[in-house]
Design brief:
alpha+beta, Jelly Rolls, 2 domains, four-stranded antiparallel beta sheet, 4 helices, 28% strand
Length: 218
């Protein structure tokens, strides 16, 4: 009985440590995939009313406001955007914290050969509220040259501010896998003593981690 309790204690320690490492890895994956960051899809060949993309701010940091386009028509490559867009960022209280207008020729955006983007602005956003922010964009002057081009205005976290912390999140898959594998090995003698639940749970978590790595977002 004493040996079983020791094995259970070791298994719990390895399992909890592995889950903690897996959580850090998952956080890094979601961050790198820009999960939850706002994107407004635009047709720059048509004037639009305000289009809103709600989002939440979980941590303070600098964010980059980008205009990107995807094009697969070589005949249009290099044509500058001659339209006009307006952008707003509104905090949870309804206060407009950023409002910009971009008249024709002011942003240097052109039809790309495949993908291209330009930085419109940057803003430091402070957390502290669980309410919803909003990114709003409208096209006030259209450009027919962008009729077949898919464009977006998006707000992206500046990854440079993450420093080594961002890299650590990514590599935590290694200790997560190792610790869960060790937990499974410890669970084998427990299963032989009619304690099969630890082995089943650990193998299920290893399978879930493998599937997440295989089909992770982004």
């Amino acid at each position: 009985m004493t040996d079983t309790r020791i094995l259970l204690g070791i298994w719990v320690l390895l399992l909890v440590s592995g889950l903690a490492a897996a959580a850090l890895f998952g956080q890094g994956v979601l961050r790198d995939s820009h999960h939850g960051e706002p994107v407004v899809h635009l047709d720059l060949s048509k004037e639009t009313d305000w289009i809103a993309a709600p989002f939440r701010v979980w941590r303070e940091g600098r964010h980059r406001l980008l205009l990107s386009s995807v094009n697969h028509d070589d005949r249009l490559v290099g044509r500058p955007f001659r339209g006009e867009i307006e952008v707003r960022i509104v905090d949870p209280s309804g206060t407009v914290v950023l409002e910009r207008g971009y008249p024709p020729g002011s942003i240097g955006h052109a039809v790309p050969s495949n993908y291209g983007d330009v930085r419109l602005d940057s803003i430091r956003i402070r957390s502290g509220s669980l309410g919803r922010w909003a990114l709003l964009v409208r096209v006030t002057a259209a450009d027919a040259a962008f009729e077949t081009v898919r464009s977006e205005v998006k707000l992206r976290t500046d990854q440079r501010e993450l420093g080594m912390g961002g890299l650590i999140n990514t590599v935590m898959i290694l200790p997560a896998g190792l610790l869960l594998a060790l937990a499974a090995l410890v669970a084998v003698p427990l299963a032989r003593r009619d304690h099969r639940s630890p082995l089943i749970l650990t193998l299920s978590l290893l399978l879930a981690l493998a599937l997440f790595v295989r089909w992770r977002p982004g």
